[in-house]
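REQUEST FORM: STRUCTURE PREDICTION
Request ID: SP-0412
Submitted by: Lab K.M.
Chain count: 1
Length (residues): 634
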Amino acid sequence: MTYKERFKNIQVLKLDTTSFDELPEEKKMLAYHLSNAGLAGRMIYLHQKSSENIHIFESVINLYKNLNSIKNKTPEISAIESKVRDTLFVMFVNNGIYESATGQNIVSDLPLKVTDLETIKDLLPEIYTNVNKALFCNKNLKEYRTVQKSGVDVVKDSGVNYYHNLTTEEVNLYRSEKYKNKDKNIAYGFNEVLSKSERSGEITSKTIFEKGLYGKYVKQIILHLSKAVEFAENEQQKKSIESLIKFYKTGDAKDFYEHSVEWVKDQESSVYFVNGLIECYEDPLGLICSYESLVAFKDPIQTAKVKKIIDAIQYFEDNLPVDEKYKKEKAVGLSASSINVISMAGATSPVLPLGINLPNSETIRKEYGSKSVTLSNVDSARTTDDIKLNEVLYLEEFQSLVSYANKMAGTLHTDLHEIAGHGSCKTMAGVTNESLSMYYSVIEETRADLVGLYYIADEKMKEIGIYEKDANLHDIAKGKYIGYITNGSIGQLRRMELGKDLTQAHFRNRQLISTYLLHNCDHEKLNMVEKDGSYYIQLNDVSHVRDMIGVLLREIQRIKSEGDLNAAKKLVELYGTKINHFVHKEVLERFESLNLATTTGFRTPILELRNGKVVVEYYNDFIEEQLALYERFC
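STATUS: Completed
RESULT:
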């Protein structure tokens, strides 16, 4: 029976890690030390999510432990204990009090309410005061973790723990002065926290490294990485790990750049890892990066399938519907694998992505290439009631078509997104990720999704053996287009609160594409229709929609390659921010009775040494696991 824990709209699943047992012992030892290195930094991410995060966690955990220790509980105390446990469940899934996908403050939606605390006011007065102040009377908590929209001060209004007492203007001015003579191709400041003194007005920077910010965690990361070096599979992987150690010792952005080069060159190792400050999605200015770790091992059968895309990568580059000057003359250094996750921490835990393409540096991508992975055991573990979704999301005439397309294509859109999308094209001289400021992530995710959609049913897919010769490319394209546009304009709205704008990069990029197509395609060929009070996508001309995908892709690539901030802002604000109120209201009503999870997290496999051998273990349940990891690595 499939393992599942559930609380309201959140489900937690287990990953299939059985094939880990088949690895040679030395590779298991490598994974063991890399896993511990990743987990050693998990507290860094909890700190980064909010300056109040640790205080809140400590208060609620302390409350739970005290309630748990009470013998002969009254029914009222047992009820409060249950609510506190459920509150911790929600907080651990989201790594705090901001929802993992939308970034919205979830304190008001937590099971524990301020009125519940009155029950323990006399029993645990000090704990009552601490929880009340930390969770319910905390004026430092913002409405959103990350605000990225025009017309507001995004730094001042964001709750993420990257800037203290600062405005957007002050941050931009400080950085322009501090890094004006630095190499623009290196992301200086990506591992810092900026603060302004209320007394003197002086701005100071704290850097994450061994002797700096979060140093006690970084030292443990270095310790475990140093042990991992002894089990490196080859010289290149050894260089990759050693260069990461060097970065953690110095905190110098140039050293992380060098690590990224060594990391991308390591394309033969069967044990895959990511460790560091990687993605900038949660910084309102798109500069400071969140800590994350992932350890996995390659799935040779599935890797052989994605390798077919790599082998044909020059075809995908050459045939993109974009200006020739933005294309790479030669698509170099690209690698792709299908992997099984064995450990994760930070921003990749417990909610895991389906695919990863790194590094993010455009200079490294251009000169050395990138590595793309599809997370095979994450995809296979996700359990969604397809029958319910088909019936509720699509017109009856399209339901079997969408099912057919999903069965035939599988994770192909994710593979194309990561490999042919993120790995394609180049920027013009002097253009960096910072050129698009807070819109970079949305534009880049839009670009990668469009590439995937453009090629999802290309004839080349049959030629290279992705599809069988008898596969119906027209029906695959139609089903995938209906599925994507439905999700971007209808389905994903079930995760949003009515009346709120989109703030998260992936939500925004999906709506941007879907809404652009709905607004700009011939309405006889693509349209949103209403039937029996519900909204659906009607698609009648696949070729026309693909052509319009190409039109949008051409402009998105121009924006990225030229660093056209004004054009990026215009597109994102026009199509990827505001939600149609009437559609949103109807969608929430449609899904209310279906009891479908909107957030899926995963249990953390624990690698332990037993009698000199590495084994995979699990705690009894998600809460026990998260509490143990919190104490072990805090």
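NOTES: The chain is about 50% helix and 15% strand.
Reviewed by: T.R.
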